[in-house]
Structure formats: C-alpha cells, structure tokens
Amino acid sequence: xxxxxxxxxxxxxxxxxxxxxxxxxxxxxxxxxxxxxxxxxxxxxxxxxxxxxxxxxxxxxxxxxxxxxxxxxxxxxxxxxxxxxxxxxxxxxxxxxxxxxxxxxxxxxxxxxxxxxxxxxxxxxxxxxxxxxxxxxxxxxxxxxxxxxxxxxxxxxxxxxxxxxxxxxxxxxxxxxxxxxxxxxxxxxxxxxxxxxxxxxx
Length: 202
Known about the structure:
The chain is of the alpha+beta class. The protein has helices at residues 10-22, 63-70, 84-113, 121-142, 155-170, 176-179, 181-190, 194-197; strands spanning 2-5, 27-30, 51-53, 59-61.
C-alpha cells in the first residue's frame, strides 16, 4: 500500500497513526496539494489527502473511510468495536474531532488564501465558534476518563489527539490547554506513544 499525504495534514496524521498502531507496512509519499505541479488529481478527484493506493492500484479516499478499513486488516491494536452502539459512539468522537478540524481549516484557508480586504471576519468568527464549541463538547464527553471511550485506547483518541495537535500547530493562540485541562492531559499521554511522536505535524 501507498499513502499519499502531507506532513502537516491532521487527517493524514490520523491515518499514519493508525498504520503505525496496527503495524501495517505502507509507503508514505508526500504530496503538496497546493503546489502548481501537484498530481493529487490522479488519486483523488476532490484534490484532497489522504489517499490510500491499494495493492491492486485502486484508491481509497477520506481519512474516516481509510482508518475504518485499516482496522479490519489485522487484530493488532483494535481501534473500533465490531458493531453496535459502542462502535457508533467511537465514530461520533471521530466525526466531532474532524468537524472541528474542518472549521479550523476553513479559517486558515480564509486567512492564507484570500487577500486581507476580501476576508470575512464574520464568517471566520462563525467557524471559530464551532471550534470552541467542539472543544467544550470534547472536554465534557471526556470528563475524568483515561481515554475517550473509557479505559481503552481507541480510534476516538487518535482522532481527538490529531485534532488537538493540529490546533496547537496552526492556532497557538487558541488556549485549549488552559481552558480544558483534561484534554491537555489526554494529549500529553497520547504524545508519549511512538505513533504520535513519529507523525508530529510540520
């Protein structure tokens, strides 16, 4: 398998962490989707990363689809329950973490891709409110649990950890560590895992 992605993308990081936790061999090919010579369209008509090129040449897109598939390949470090409510709960954690990222990414693109005079302060404020509301919700859901799903490390922790890491990387002015001590404790614990150490955004 070959993973097409960037070193900065939190969605790509999520897949990289899962690959490492599952001990799956996969070539990582760095692609800058914003470069004039990008070839991402060969792999994903949406022009996004990550894309996972399979052994037969077919391509799987979207981080949520990819990590769910990867978890089926080996029983090592199972990250999702087999079915039912517990599985749906984990996927809801992932959806919230990814949705928070979507809002934050929108703000970053507005700031970096549009001239200052064309940027919408109102629209960016709306997106940042989503980020703050999501952080509060993640913190409330986590409570004093050791991990998002309770006592077991799961895909929920991977998704939340990648989202928090990217916020620190791109939005250091967001004081989520001070505002939500339990999320900071979770992220510090996750950061000790080799899979997280090897995929710090850059």
